[in-house]
Amino acid sequence: MFTLLVFTQVFKLKTIFKMKKVIALIWIGYLSSGVVFAQCNTLDNECAPDLHPYISDGQYYHAKLNGEETAEFKTTFYANETYKIVACGEQGLGSIQYRLFDANYNLIFDNKDYDNAATWEFKFNTTNDFYIQTKLLGGTDEGCAVLLIGFDCHCSD
Fold this sequence. Notes:
single chain, alpha+beta, 4-stranded antiparallel sheet, 1 helix, 9 strands
């Protein structure tokens, strides 16, 4: 009986120790992801002036990318509106490629065809969903890539 009681107590202690390790790992992961998104949010603020005179759509499209990884974002562009896309990354990151696809994944635009232009303006004739894929081109192997989308508010009309 005593042996069973000791075994049970030891088993409980080992289980508690393992749970604490798992909780610590989860907590570390949570904190480090917060740092990544905080870095991206800071980058959002640095890139925002490049949207001028367009008004931000209020969304922040950002991803921490490694090597050949590609991030994908879905958005809706509305008919007869003019939009501006701004791509930026952390210092030393190199260029960011972004490609615009329609809902059927037909390629509409690739900034790589235009010397990796960081900004580009679009006007759409119809309202549709689109996908924007981003990836790193050169520079460091890992970093935060940010896309900002702005629209012409016709404020001066």
